[in-house]
Amino acid sequence: MGINRREFFRDLGLAAGAAALLSREAFGADEAVWPYAPLKTADVIVCEGTAYKTLLTRAFDKLGGLKKYIKGGDSVLVKPNIAWDRAPEYGATTNPFVVAALVELSLAAGAGEVKVYDNTCANCRRSYDSSGIADAARDAGAKVSYVDTALGKTVNIPNGVAVKKAEVYADVLDTDVIINVPIAKDHSLSRLTLGMKNLLGILVENRGRWHQRINQKLVDLAQVVTPTLTVIDATRIMTANGPTGGELGYVKRLDKLIVTTDVTAADAYATTLFGLEPTDLGVVKEARKRDFGTADVERMNVSKVTA
Amino acid sequence: MPPGGWEWFRRLSQVAFFGAACVLIVATNYPLEADLPYDIIPRFSPLLAATAMAASRAVITAFWPALIVVALTLLLGRAFCGWVCPVGALLDAGDFVIGKVFRKRRREGEKVGHRRWRILLLVALLVFAAFGIPLAGWFDPLALFPRTLATSVIPYASVGLDKLTLLLYDVPRLESFASAVRQRVVAENVTLFPGRVAVAAVLAGLVLLGFVRRRFYCRYVCPTGALLSVVGWASPFGRRVAGAECTECKRCRNVCRMGAIGGRGEATAQAECNLCMDCLTACRPDATSFGYGRARPPENPTTWAPALNRRDFLVSAGASLVAAPAVLVTDGRVQNDLFLIRPPGAQEESEFLARCVRCGECIRVCLTQGLAPVHFEAGLTGLWTPRLIPRKGYCEYLCTLCTQVCPTDAIKTLTEEQKKKEIIGLAVVDRTRCLPWVEDEDCNVCEEMCPTSPKAIELRGRGRLKPHVIADKCVGCGICEYACPVEGDAAIVVVGDRDRVYFTNDGGGGRHYRGGRGG
């Protein structure tokens, strides 16, 4: 059987790649010599302070302004963590003021509508009310609703490693821009729950079934439903008994927000707030393995804003 | 006489009370912030008051509205049955439909002696209550009505809306309407279980008995009406017929929904008449009036006034005196279902049973719709008392709704702080089905969900982490059983009776229980 030119070059490329890989493994070569790894960096903005709206405005400006991400009339989903029936001070749900600030900024950037919802773990009515998010977001001008689990759409995950399809809330698929705004907190199985874990709140299927090989599944999902922006709420972090918490003693106040377009970078950087390494987190390790986003803090372009 | 006749006032009153009852039951829902008297409907019943107090041997002051009904009955006879009772209103509507639509002509002649059945039932219920077994809630309209709405009508209506609005979603102009309705449906979180059908079947059956007689239930069954017959027997108010003007046309006899008119129309059974006033309009010569002064009793007062029949009284009381202790002994021998979980704040079981009037308010208000009516899991006498079915809906950790709507304090009111400490059961891991235990797969759903701090479920183990329940931290809320991803029955189950769980010494803190479901 003959070989044509295209195949020859393809094979040559593969061989070169393999050689490069081997040499990298063998000689511990710097990543810069690795020809096929995209030299990815991520801009990560770490905000410190309590004037959330000002902080976020400055952070988005560093990323090119929110208008770069939200076109006029866009439908924007601000996706907080409203999973639990807890008051905001327990750090089990996203800070309602951060959610409200994001809603206001999105509307100011020209969003046609801003939606806020999460498929809760505890009862939706109590969680929406106790977390303070429903009221805060509504006052800020958002359309707050419960996730209607009867209205799901199947999304195929062709490159999925652990899961090949997901039943996603149909409304998410009608959304132009997703702003993922998780709270950073403790979690027994995945160590921490951060940006990628927060995306489980758009599923309408039995999420219990997502907790086996969870790290692979989280990266699988993030590849098809990728948030435009991720804002990790570390104004308060929950350090123990997560993800439900329930005692103020578990909560540490940091007054920090991590803003980036790269959900992997967000998760990786957020681990450092807990005194951990990014690789301590299975989901970051998995993303790194699959070259999804920027998992190495050294490759991040971290800048700080305060207000 | 007002234009259109008094019966229009009566109909207006029936519609108003029926509507108010429905609105109140529908409004018995999170977050209960309207400050309405959500639990007031059963509290109007003198029978529920008498039986609950007798059975629990306590004065339950919450029953003060029943005194209003008693006073009303002393003054006006059984006006409550004709003007106020929501079941009466429903039956009247049903009877109207059966008469007009099905053109069913019901014989109004009857063996008057059948009227004594409700009196026999009343006596039996009182005797049973004296033995600590209150069963009045099974029959009382003011328990039956809210129970049926709460456990059956509203859930099925909700499910119907669910299906309907899913269809409307595809109609472009109705989408926002459908969306708004669906948000409500999603929030109500309705679950269905077989118990809901049985409860509905009772009320449906009562309506269908209208094919036999109008107001069949009120004539032959309703023990509350029977009690009001006794109370209203001496009422000075009633129907009178001016003998000189009466043409003996008997139109009043035919029109009477209670069959309370005897003779050639001149006689009235005070114990039966519910003052619907239909006979006023029916009376062509205007010989009929309602006013003070005793009505002329029928020819045979012993059958027309079953409330005062000594023989029936003795038969029923005697039979109940034998039956009640027998039921007590039987139920005492039958252990409650191991998985019977009472609502948070429920009194100790015998006191709970004594006070519970089976009104279903707690089932209505339950945030997760995990409360369901019991069949025979609590013995014969526990029928339609509430239980939690965690696989359908768990007990939300900080929610106290059901404790706020119990009319008789069978479920005591809890504050949020008290609720956190309220223990209703104990979770047990089924190590033959739990994923990390048998499949060697990661799973932490039960632990993740556990709302206590610190958590009552810990993940332990070298290598694969496996869930372990910490018994003295577990409150039995059942969110673990609810969320367990194993198909079918959960791999972690909550037992209602902690005492029947015993610990094994297998080094892993294993826990076992006797008997399976229903055992």
Describe this protein's structure:
The complex is a heterodimer of chains A (307) and B (519). Chain A has 10 helices and 12 strands. Chain A has 307 residues and is α/β, with parallel strands linked by helices. The longest helix of chain A is centred in the N-terminal third of the chain and has 23 residues, at 5-27. Mean pLDDT of chain A is 91; it is low at 24-37. Chain B folds into 2 domains: 6-232, no CATH class; 349-513, no CATH class. A two-stranded antiparallel sheet of chain B has the order 1-4. Chain B has a two-stranded antiparallel ribbon with strand order 2-3. A two-stranded antiparallel sheet of chain B has the order 5-6. The termini of chain B are far apart. The A-B interface holds A 84-85, 121-126, 129-130, 145-151, 187-189, 206, 208-209, 211-214, 241, 243-247, 250 and B 30-31, 162, 166, 169, 179, 182-183, 186-187, 189, 367-368, 396-399, 435, 441-445, 447-455, 459, 465, 479, 483-485.
Quickly list its features:
heterodimer; A: 307 residues; alpha/beta; Rossmann fold; ten-stranded mixed beta sheet; two-stranded antiparallel ribbon; 32% helix; 22% strand; globular; B: 519 residues; mainly alpha; two-stranded antiparallel sheet; 24 helices; 12 strands; 46% helix; 8% strand; elongated
